[in-house]
């Protein structure tokens, strides 16, 4: 017990003398974080071949998405621009009353170390713009 108390006092004094430790770097350059892996479920597109589920993996590119390399490149570009491609339309945003068709898409998985659970539709001008911002991750939803 005395040794444990002495260790605690010595550790506290060393920390006070040296200052706080720097933050730890991302483990092995991100190798231990969850891989970028998304599932895109399309429905009501008006094209039966598009109404299906796609898998997309980035870094390295993989899955069965028809435009995997371009989709990963699009997500990387949005990230470099500081945009969250999966953020919903703000409740405060004024949107054109425009209908882009019944197409919907659900995107789930992991991207850049965070969980994704996003829903896309084409029910007004804001939602249409949000959808088109992600093309080719989301295939064109025009019906």
From TrEMBL:
Molecular function in Gene Ontology: serine-type endopeptidase inhibitor activity
Chief location: secreted
GO cellular component, one term: extracellular region
InterPro entries per the UniProt record, alphabetical: Prot_inh_SSI_I16_CS, Subtilisin_inhibitor, Subtilisin_inhibitor-like_sf
Keywords: Disulfide bond, Protease inhibitor, Secreted, Serine protease inhibitor, Signal
Segment forming the signal sequence: 1-16
Domain Subtilisin inhibitor, chain residue ranges per copy: 38-117
Origin: domain of life: Bacteria
Subcellular location: Secreted
Record family assignment: Belongs to the protease inhibitor I16 (SSI) family.
Name used for this protein in its record: Subtilisin inhibitor domain-containing protein
């Amino acid at each position: 017990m005395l040794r444990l108390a002495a260790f605690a006092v010595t550790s506290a004094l060393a920390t006070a003398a040296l200052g706080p430790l720097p933050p730890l770097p991302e483990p092995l350059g991100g190798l231990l974080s969850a891989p970028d892996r998304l599932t895109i479920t399309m429905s009501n597109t008006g094209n039966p071949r598009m109404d299906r589920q796609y898998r997309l993996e980035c870094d390295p590119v993989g899955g069965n998405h028809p435009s995997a390399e371009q989709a990963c490149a699009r997500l990387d570009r949005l990230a470099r621009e500081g945009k969250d491609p999966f953020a919903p339309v703000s409740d405060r945003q004024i949107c054109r009353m425009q209908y882009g068709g019944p197409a919907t898409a659900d995107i789930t998985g992991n991207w850049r170390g965070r969980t994704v659970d996003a829903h896309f539709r084409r029910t007004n001008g804001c939602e249409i713009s949000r959808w088109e911002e992600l093309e080719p991750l989301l295939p064109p939803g025009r019906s």
